[in-house]
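Consider a typical record:
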Amino acid sequence: MKAKTALEQSPDRLICAETANGLATVFHETGEGASAEPFHLRFTPRDTDGVLNAVGTVMVGSYDDLETAVRQAAELYGAGENDWRAILSKDLPTGGHGAPDLSR
């Protein structure tokens, strides 16, 4: 579904889109003390086994509006316009393999 529709359905103000390389998420910060750029884009990559690796989650950026955050997710990670869905924060990926062993 479209990002705006997904966000309207999300009690946690959190949406996600899965891509071949990982999971893009956008959180809409609201309320007192909210950032001037309240749409926060993060990306959780897949490891070499295809498992979402939460240890590698990166904060991509904060944006003034949802459309800009979604456009960045599309440009950087291939998130499709209709690939968004509501997600609860408790359902975000955890774990993963962590950093690779570079001593080998």
Remarks:
- The chain has two helices and five strands.
- The first helix runs from residue 3 to 9.
